[in-house]
Specification:
Helices cover about 0% and strands about 35% of the residues. With about 90 residues, the chain is mainly beta. The protein is globular, with a radius of gyration of 15 Å.
């Protein structure tokens, strides 16, 4: 589980960043991570980024690697919904 500080979408791609608050991997607890999803309707892909424990850096909000990992068949059927801002007409 993560405390999310940014979620953005564009077309069929979404990026989310935040701080991990619950995990079974101690090295990720309280660390910032970025995850991206590409929803192509058939073979979704994921991307992710984090900074190693020895670096004095953090993943910035709204930043992750391009989706590069294929999701196993039958799992992770993501649906990215485009975010639309309603602009005033006047």
């Amino acid at each position: 589980m993560a405390k999310v500080d940014c979620l953005t979408t564009g077309g069929k791609v979404a990026v989310v960043t935040g701080k991990v608050i619950e995990t079974d991997v101690d090295a990720f607890r309280n660390k910032r991570v970025g995850v991206s999803v590409h929803d192509d309707g058939k073979h979704d892909r994921l991307g992710y980024s984090w900074v190693g424990r020895d670096a004095n850096l953090e993943v910035p909000p709204c930043l992750s690697a391009a989706p590069f990992e294929r999701v196993q068949k039958g799992t992770g059927d993501f649906e990215v919904l485009p975010w639309q801002l309603d602009y005033p007409t006047e």
